[in-house]
Amino acid sequence: MVTYRHLGSSGLKITEIAYGNWLTHGSQVEADTAIDCVHTALDLGITSFDTADVYANTAAEEVLGRALSGQRRESLEIFTKVYWPIGPKGPNDVGLSRKHIMEGINGSLRRLGVDYVDLYQAHRYDYETPLEETMQAFADVVRAGKALYIGVSEWTAEQIRAGQGLASQMGFRLVSNQPQYSALWRVIEGEVIPASTELGLGQIVFSPMAQGVLSGKYLPGAEPPAGSRATDGRGGKDMISRWMRPEVLTAVQALRGVAEEAGLTMPQLAIAWVLQNPAISAAIVGASCPEQLRDTVRASGVVLDESIMKAIDAALGDVIMRDPARTRTVSPNPRPA
């Protein structure tokens, strides 16, 4: 069964492997398969589920809501997010204005079929809305009982500090950040993690397998496997493109021997590496079939010894991205249309 961890310094416990439906439900995977994956996650002991209103333009929330229907609500931790354009994508269908946050939470609750979410997250930083307005809206969402906790996603250390300061004045706290993090993408280690740890935020990280590249299934010089994310023209191909360079794929293949030495599959090694960091509250995994989940959950509770950690660093070498400035680039200055 999957191990639990505290979400930052809060009292909430979540499974250290959370199930997410970013590029799958309502898009890459048919609804019946998606529901089977959610039920498999529950059978394997995963109780924490991450989604967002923008995933498949709200369809992912609907699929997750159907999949969790009939489950004991108190035994689940449901996370969703607000920021990116949804619906007809009008001028107020995006961002962290009071209007969009209030309409966003009501829409998410309706699609998920619940009275509240455990964690409501600012999906990016909004440079066009005063931070005071955003934090006041989140405070009101909490007071209304529509969300129990508030988090952010891909905020810089400076933004997290400013947000936590305002949140504290308004009677609540930020408890989490959801950044990208993997053995290949370590940009949060220099600034975001130290600031978050100081302020009590845990990291719920996405893409612990670098969109699947760390699974080892993409070979240098070869065409991507049919049906893989790298062949998906609905968004997956664009997201994974940064890792499809020959030097990256060659370095990843050097991890095969490391995984074998550790007695793990390559996906298990990638997730176990992320979970070695005590600042990480959970790693989000997705799945296009139940068998993938049955493999990846075996990373829960794994302890990698120092020699394995050093071997991972040696294998990946110069292809590791560490520049903390990269965090700033993921939140666009103008709101996306």
From TrEMBL:
Keyword vocabulary terms for this entry: NADP, Oxidoreductase
Domain spans labelled NADP-dependent oxidoreductase: 16-315
Pfam families reported in the protein's UniProt record: Aldo_ket_red (PF00248)
Transmembrane helix listed as a keyword: no
GO molecular function: oxidoreductase activity
Listed Gene3D superfamilies: NADP-dependent oxidoreductase domain
Xref: SUPFAM superfamilies: NAD(P)-linked oxidoreductase
Database matches in PANTHER family: HYPERKINETIC, ISOFORM M
Family: Belongs to the shaker potassium channel beta subunit family.
Record-given protein name: Aldo/keto reductase
The organism of origin for this protein: Actinomyces gaoshouyii
